[in-house]
Amino acid sequence: MKLLAVLVLVFSLVSCEKKSEAIDKVGSMVQETKNSDDYTVQDKNNQSNSAEERIFTFDPVITIEDEFIPLLNTNVFVKTADESLAEEIHQDLITYHKLVDQYHYYMENNATSKNLKIVNDRIHQKESIVLDEKLFNLLRDSIDLMPVTHGYFNPFINPVLELYDGKFSPFPIENADPKAVDIKNALKTVLSYEQATENFIFDESSYTLSFKNVPEVSLNVGAISKGFIAEEIAKKYRNGTYLLNLGNSTIYGQGRDYKIGVQSPYNNRGALFHINLPSGLSLSTSGTTNNYYILQDDGKTIRTHLIDPYTGYSNDYYWSVTIVSDSAMLADALTTALFNVGDTEEAMEIIEATRKAYGCTLEACFVKELSRRREEVELLMTDGFQIYIDNEYKDVSVVDKKIIGK
């Protein structure tokens, strides 16, 4: 584990006397954060006890082949005054990383870890497998979410995602879409909820996953795993004081309130808006800032890594979707799902269905671009989202706010 030797978050205010010695390291972290898989989310907290807290960043995880993989394949840090707590969370994150990685093999307790990579191998071999309880629950929860989200969350979208390998970038580049015929063929192998429940058998008594006549498919939990992990960390460390950042797509604060800034789509400005995040709640944002490309056919259409499982392409209904919830897992999954739901009435149906099915608190904000030339957006919010917005912060990009679902 590496301790970043500054007393502030990447985005916190740095005192004048500390600025000169910290500027190189802070600048490095800002660049790393901008290259993460979702929107940059900034901790703007300036409470008096923040000076006692430090940022802890972590080394890569080593695979069986001696490859060095970034923890959870993104930028992860914990802000806390408790170094021992940071180290405990670090060790848990390593364990979870090994479980959810679908591309690499790892050693765990002198044996090959039964992770998602092994699960996908077994699917192709049609062999049952006894899983770690956490991974078992994550896979089951991922499938259970499919009907609740009207199918917009789909853990079987791998065949389509693979067509986009190497196309996305953290900075503006032009690229071509995959061939339409390839997308059409890949979509045929993306399972529906009915197909998934027919062919995937979960035995809760033994945490065994068995398969029937499963076609050549694989599971991908990238759109839910960070939220799931944050939720598990939250359950285990209820009495600590810390901010957990899993690649900025999932933020969880415990022990005190935090002020978080959601990045503006116009990078020459600061945060688009600030959120007052109460202790015990999580924040998730998915959007168009990173992992995207500009369609070379027209030079303006933006394609993101948030692929619509019905069409095989990303949509441009919103610039981003942000959710505040007491369930980090649901917040993570729904920001991905709702990004591709252009009808706000249907989006509200999904939100209400999720609240009812899981008994959770869940409020959403959709950032819709009005004019790229004038750099103007509007915020489409559920009624309960308003209480989290810091109204003292003003950004000239936000020209309108509307409440949906009434």
Automatic annotation (TrEMBL):
Cofactor section: Mg(2+)
EC numbers on record: 2.7.1.180
Any single Pfam family the record assigns to this protein: ApbE
Gene source species: Candidatus Treponema excrementipullorum
Keywords: Cell inner membrane, Cell membrane, FAD, Flavoprotein, Lipoprotein, Magnesium, Membrane, Metal-binding, Transferase
Membrane-spanning residues: none
Location in the cell: Cell inner membrane
Family, per entry: Belongs to the ApbE family.
Record's function text: Flavin transferase that catalyzes the transfer of the FMN moiety of FAD and its covalent binding to the hydroxyl group of a threonine residue in a target flavoprotein.
PROSITE patterns: PROKAR_LIPOPROTEIN
Domain of life: Bacteria
Lineage: Bacteria, Pseudomonadati, Spirochaetota, Spirochaetia, Spirochaetales
Signal peptide from the UniProt entry: none
Protein name: FAD:protein FMN transferase
